[in-house]
Specification:
The chain is of the alpha/beta class. The chain folds into two domains: 12-22 and 264-388, Aspartate Aminotransferase, domain 1; 24-263, 3-Layer(aba) Sandwich (Aspartate Aminotransferase, domain 2), CATH 3.40.640. 37% of the residues lie in helices and 13% in strands. The chain binds pyridoxal-5'-phosphate.
Length: 389
């Protein structure tokens, strides 16, 4: 028999930091709540109580998986909303006058804090970092010593460059100065184990669609004893923290997705880490002057799911993602701003990256394969060969 060559994949998806495909097991868990279990969880009759029980079970599952108490978990519409709760909720409810973050945070954290600064409610300070995005924790400590009882928001992992921050060490520093510490764990929830008993944080967050759950649902962990005022008013759902009829099938899906993620974490981590290592090696071999942004290529200091690739200046830089898309590779990009008018990546900008180099972020999941990595590298290398030829 003549061996058949494997055909080019129809579509290669390497944008899992933006969102992940829904796990079929999660869909199965959700479907009954889109069909037969339609009661309103606030209704007192049996149909409502059955749905209420599903929400409370989901809360217990999420709490158990991060070693929290169920009462410490509030479901939200997404990670952005949970980050907003942590920022507005703690600054306003606790009367904090100073906030500390870093210029490398996601806009879900930066924009609420900048809004609080603009309204005069807080003075906002930024932790220094180096050109690879490592935070200067000595600077954090200096600022907290000058201004204890501050709101601190520093992410666990950066969504663009993949850098991991030492949130245990940050929590210890915050605790020494009685700071309120929120960490945006959107990119690590479901990909790393979280144990709030080992962290000195007051808040952390999750977003289901980043770990093969549905879009439009997230959660906020609030350490017990900390009372934050609601952002949405109009009902007593979520223990008065967030009014509005719950996204029941989303909440059920979130809990199922987190359960699966934690259950299968070691195998998936090994699989995806191997894909990332292969990506780095193949890119080095195939694309001249390839570099990696931040700590992206360092296995111990960056997300195993994210590889931020910096490519040499070329005529195709601006159209790179479009060309990759035509080659059936979905990835995301970013570049440092060339002028104030051009919106680029605030993270690459803050790192002082060369605006003439193009960035492609490949982000992987358990559903990707080695063959897809090879295909994506070859597609990218081919585009560059065409320009140089
Ligand atoms: N924080 C980080 C680090 C993210 O990567 C994202 C999404 O990309 C968010 C917050 C916002 O999450 P959501 O899409 O659920 O609003």
């Amino acid at each position: 028999m003549t061996p058949t060559l494997s055909p080019a994949p129809a579509f290669v998806y390497f944008d899992n930091a933006a969102t992940t495909p829904l796990d079929p097991e999660v869909l199965d868990a959700m479907l009954p709540f889109l069909s037969q279990h339609y009661g309103n969880p606030s209704s007192l009759h049996g149909a409502g109580r059955q749905v209420r029980a599903a929400i409370e079970n989901a809360r217990k599952t999420v709490a158990h998986l991060i070693n929290a108490a169920p009462a410490e978990i509030s479901f939200t519409s997404c990670g952005t909303e949970a980050d907003n709760y942590a920022a507005f909720g703690s600054v306003r409810s606790l009367g904090l006058k100073h906030a500390i973050t870093s210029p490398l945070e996601h806009h879900a954290v930066l924009h609420p804090l900048q809004a609080l600064e603009k309204s005069g409610e807080v003075e906002l300070h930024y932790v220094r970092h180096d050109a690879q995005g490592r935070l200067d924790l000595g600077h954090l400590e200096e600022m907290l010593a000058a201004q204890p009882r501050t709101f601190v928001s520093l992410m666990h992992a950066n969504n663009e460059i993949g850098n991991l921050n030492d949130i245990e060490a940050i929590g210890e520093i915050c605790a020494r100065y009685d700071a309120v510490f929120h960490t945006d764990t959107v990119q690590t929830m479901g990909h790393y184990r979280h144990n709030v008993q080992q962290l000195k944080n007051h808040f952390l967050v999750g977003s289901a669609h980043k770990f093969h759950g549905p879009k439009g649902v997230g959660f906020l962990y609030t350490r017990s004893g900390l009372q934050v005022n609601p952002l949405i008013h109009g009902g007593s759902q979520e223990r008065n923290v967030r009014a509005g009829t719950e996204n029941v099938y989303g909440i059920v899906g979130l809990a199922k997705a987190l359960e699966i993620a934690v259950r299968d974490l070691p195998q998936h981590q090994a699989h995806v880490q191997a894909l990332k290592t292969r990506f780095v090696e193949k890119l080095r071999a195939e694309v001249e002057d390839v570099q990696f942004n931040g700590l992206s290529e360092h296995a111990d200091h960056s997300l195993y799911t994210v590889l931020s690739v910096s490519l040499p200046p070329s005529a195709i830089s601006e159209m790179l993602l479009f060309n990759l898309d035509i080659s059936k590779v979905a990835a995301s990009g970013g570049s440092a701003c060339t002028s104030g008018a051009q919106a680029g990546s605030h993270v690459l900008d803050a790192l002082g990256c060369d605006p003439d180099r193009a960035t492609v972020r490949f982000s992987m999941s358990k559903m990707n394969t080695a063959a897809e990595v090879d295909y994506a590298v070859e597609a990218l290398a081919k585009l560059y060969r065409q320009v140089v030829a």
